Amino acid sequence: QAVPAGSHVRLNLQTGEREAKLPDSEDGNSEAREERRRKRYPGRVLGKVDVDANSFTSQELKKALAKMKESEKAERKVSEESSLFLQQLSVRRKFRPIEQLKEEFEKLNVKMETDYEIMVKLISKFNSSASTLADKVAALYDLEYYVHQV
């Protein structure tokens, strides 16, 4: 059973029934208090509630619930997008693209090679007929290290 907002509700443990009681008016001026609440919180329904069972149809309730779910999804999507953007921004601040790093190292006359480039050089060194047995063994050990990382 629907009860007016602000009612005191309790479960009677002896009888197992739920009981509701309208709040006592402290100064007898509850109408003025409700008017102040409406002014303070426009758009919220405070105070007396229509408890007539025919006041809302099931279709109206379903539509209202669907609108609430849509607005909740939209809010969640906006918050997820903003948090994702902030994460990407913090990553961009911490790390730089490899192309930019290569350019900076070239300015310093330092050659930076990726693991792939090093592995290609080691394979060509191993396959080279000019390499000695010690060079080939060293290339295999180095290659093993890089392949293990992959």
TrEMBL record:
Residues 16-35 have a biased composition (Basic and acidic residues). Residues 1-41 are annotated as: Disordered. GO terms for cellular component: endoplasmic reticulum. InterPro entries: Hsp70_NEF-Inhibitors. Keywords: Coiled coil, Endoplasmic reticulum, Protein transport, Transport. GO terms for molecular function: adenyl-nucleotide exchange factor activity. Residues 61-118 form a coiled coil. GO terms for biological process: protein transport. This is SIL1 factor. It comes from Indicator maculatus. The lineage of its organism: Eukaryota, Metazoa, Chordata, Craniata, Vertebrata.
